[in-house]
From TrEMBL:
The keyword Transferase does not apply. Residues 1-23 form the signal peptide. GO terms for molecular function: heparin binding. Secretory protein that plays a role in various cellular processes. Acts as a chemorepellent acting on gonadotropin-releasing hormone (GnRH) expressing neurons regulating their migration to the hypothalamus. Also promotes neuron migration, growth and survival as well as neurite outgrowth and is involved in the development of the olfactory system. May also act through the regulation of growth factors activity and downstream signaling. Also regulates extracellular matrix assembly and cell adhesiveness. This is Protein NDNF. Residues 179-316, 437-545 form the Fibronectin type-III domain.
Amino acid sequence: LKMSWIWFYLLLHLLMSAFLCHSIKAPTSSSQQSFKTNLFNFYHSLILADGKETTIHLLKDIPKRYYFVLEEGRALAPFTVTVTPCDVPIEWSILVHKASASFLGKAARGDHGTQEVSKSHKAPSMVSTIFNYKGNSVETYMGMSSHSALYLLEFLSTERDTHITVYLTTDTTSGHLYPELPMDPRIDVIGIGHTTVTLTWKHSPSVLQHRENIQYCLLVNEKHNYKSLCAAETAIRSSGMKLPPALALSLSPYLLEPQQVMILSNSELSIIHKASSGEVRQICMGTKNTYTVPSLSPNTQYYFDIFVVNLLTNASAAYTGTFARTLEEPEPKVTELKDGKVIQVVLDGKHQKFYSLQYQARHKKIQFTFQLCRGQVRVHITKNGKTVASENIAGLRYFSLKGKPLDTYLVQLRSAEESNSSVKVQVSPHFHKPLFPLLPESLKIKSFSKLRTCSSVTIAWLGTQEESKYCVYKKRIEEDQVWTELQSTDRCSGPESRHKSEKVLCKYFYDLNLQRAVTTETIKGLDAGTLYLFDVYLFGPSGIPIRYHSKVVKTRKKC
């Protein structure tokens, strides 16, 4: 190492001496000015580490330079330089100062972008450009020098600030930092479903040689393919998702951020980066080279990238990305609605599937009735293909619609939350007697704190102008049961689902003046300092009950 530095400084000294002598002997010319500039570039550059991947940050329109030295020790000195753009296309070049004109070099994997390579140089200026490249693909230059030489790498971004990674090695015998790609690095799509896509790819030679240290990882998104793993990392960060310090697809769980969801099953690591602009799914599947991507959306185009990752160095190589569109979801099964008949529908909240009901009108006026039993439900009604109603429903909801006989109505229902929901649906000609009772302005039950005692509570609820039957039920509960009882209540269930011991009383009342249509009831015989759940059921002429919102009241502990 000391000999390398001694040789390097000696070379710089000789270059400077030659430059000074040349400038004294002859007047300034364009060639001399060019040489002076190149020499200045060498002095204002950074050393590029050998055998290590270096991350370089580039500012827009400001070139950045690194140098390295090849010593005179072997007949031919091989080296490789691999540059990985992590965002926008960049320009980079390799310049050499050497005493000999004999130089051999070639570019590997130069199938993207534009490049120029000089295979033989006889440059009188001593400083010459041996390689140019512009693009955003991962590019590797392989060279071999027959004499000692000083090399300069120059990088430039003309679009915006960005960063790249550069890997230089002069030791081609100790293996590869980057995993190797097969001769055919394409990803094949061998199966497409409504929510799945099956992929296969040829094994990396690195997997076959070092199976325990190599794994395949898949990136799935709806925007475009990525040419490198650091390009994917940059895109995810710019979309507003937070990432760990590195996007290593061998992530440990403790590196995850709140915006990430990790799923570990069957030896597979799946991480979902969520943002308002979409999600990027990241799946590592070990050394399997066939994988079925699950839980995709129907009729959606996805882009798939496979990376082979070295778990020891975190270096990766990208297969040629592909894309596929999932199949359209089949038309949902449609259930026919009949006049006056009530059906109850349970909706899957996890998969957000629509449930469809169809009705052909026999009259000009019809009325749809929806009674929400559990959860939240979205209702969408069309008449002959045109939307006539669309909203989330709560409690009991009526839609009175006008049209023509033989008009076709389609009702689509789905859960408005991730848990399952349930709703009762009925349709009938508008002039039919309503199936559900006339409802008061509010279905809330009120309790009076000042009237509470150690053994009784007083509750009140609103009635209607129609004489109806009201039944009161009570249930003793614990503190930790309150939330569960209120959330899991089936608001469509009637008193038949209650234990006989929970029944308190039934009564009839009404008042033509809605201002006075209020009734109160004092429930006695309760235990001190105890929580009770109270329910009121309203029965109309048809006998179908409507359940008021449950009320939790605690008796006084001391009196």
